[in-house]
Structures are given as C-alpha cells and as structure tokens.
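Revision sheet: structure tokens.
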Amino acid sequence: MAFGYRTTASEVLEGVSLSGKQAIVTGGYSGIGLETARALASAGATVTIACRDLDRAVATAANLTQSTGREPVVAMQLDLSSQASVASFAEQYRSQHDQLHILINNAAVMACPFERTVDGFEMQFGTNHLGHFALFHHLLPTLRAAHGARVVSLSSTGHFRAPVDFDDIGFERREYHPWVAYGQAKTACALTAVGVQQRYAGEGIEGYAVHPGGIMTNLQRHMTAEDIQKRGWVDADGNVDARFKTVEQGAATSVWAATSPALTGRGGQYLADCGEVTIHDEVPADLTGVMRYAVDPEQANRLWDVSLAMLKLA
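Predicted:
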C-alpha cells in the first residue's frame, strides 16, 4: 500500500507486529498523541503515555488497554515544563524498563501568552524543545540498550515562522510574539532530530522530525474562536476546513517514522504525509516541505550545545 496525505496510523501498521517493543508517547491522552498510542498498542507494543494530568492519563490508558485487547497501556506523570518532573519520570521509567525502542515526542503547547517555566525558560521553547531534549538524555541508557531505537520529534508548518534566535531564545530583549515563539520551538524540534542522528546513529538510535498535518485538536486551546475562523481553519458555522486531517490521519506519519523499515539508516529527515519532503531556502506559498535552517547540521550542532548548557547537562 502506498501511504500519503489521507493514510491513517492503523493503515501504516496493518500486518505489522510490534510485540516486545517498548514505546513512550508524550501527550498520549488526547489528539494525535492518543491515536499514536492506540496504533502502537494495537500492533502489540507496550506503550507508556506520559502526560501532565495523571488522572486523565490513567483513565485513557485503561480505555486503550480495553479497546486494543493487547498489552496493558501504562500512564505516568510527566510535566515537560518542569525539569524536575522530566528527571523524575525518566528515573521511574528506567527503574521499570531496561529498553526503550520508540520515543515519540508528541506533547506541545502552541501560541500561548508569554510565560516562563518553573525553571525560567520561555514556555514554548522550554516545553516543546527543552523538555523533550532533557527527556531524551535521561532515557538514553534505555534507548542504547534497545540496539535499534527511534526518536520521533513532532515539528509542524509552524517552523516556517521562525528559525532559532540564538541571540535571544528567551525573548528577553525582543518583543514576544506567540507565533514566533511557537515557530522557534518547532524549528528546534526539527533540529533535534538532526542532532540525534549526528550523534547516536552509530549506536543504533535514529532521529526523525515529523509534520503531522493540520488537525483540529486541543493544541488550539490558546486561540480564540475568532482567530481560528480568521485563519480559515473553520467557517462561520464551525465546520472544519476540508484540508484538515482527522486525528487518525494526523498520527500516521509519527507511526511511520517510528516503525518503517524503509527509513532505517535515513534518520535526520523531516517527514510529512508518510514521505520525505523538499528542502526550501525561501518560505513556499503552500507551506509544504521544510526550511533549510530547520534541518541544517551546523544549526543542529549549535542548538545541541546551547541546550546542554541551558539545562546544565554538559
């Protein structure tokens, strides 16, 4: 079967067995994270959904376990905006699991008002990038032990809005704009995949960046109904634009990146619609493909070093 824009996660994994594989999906209790977790669990993987709201995550895990009829889905608390929470989650996971085959960095905040994390980082960069960056580092022993692991970082067309501003990542000297901050964070997510590939492919850990497509989920919670309509995402009657994907379709590229044999040895790429994309030097009118600055090896190296320093992991 040829995969594409309308492919669903379950179609990607049709006939695929993930029995014996351990997977973590951050933000796995809603939206495309939920459908990603569902698809992986249905294929036999042992899935942990890592979420901020533990009660909600526990209920979701129970429902997934019942609906898939496979390995129990586990819920664990993880607040990506808190480095202490990230470290605690990873320590608990490592105490229970020797290996991790699939890490899907799915959770995100989008276009929120200016705020800083408990550790002092701008909220979108601190959550979407630094939280997942630290999570990867704390889980590295289990990824290495898998002898064949994949790290999937969710980016988006938001990356077209901004590269990483290394001179003022935290908006300390420039005016804060929620969409610029979101763009910077999503560019960082894409560059992380490049960084993982550069440093760990030789150890069997490959990184991939994914644009899931346009999907109406809880991610839009910081936007007003007027703003959503103004952008053409819904009409005056609240009907979602036909170009948007369903959550099942939105989860497909994440699942494909995490499992496709065709991608072995081809990490560091930015993927969309279950395929490779064109690299651009200028923003395309149709917002397809990826900007060169989001997959540039030198930018990825710089971001990696800066992130290590910010988190005092160096």
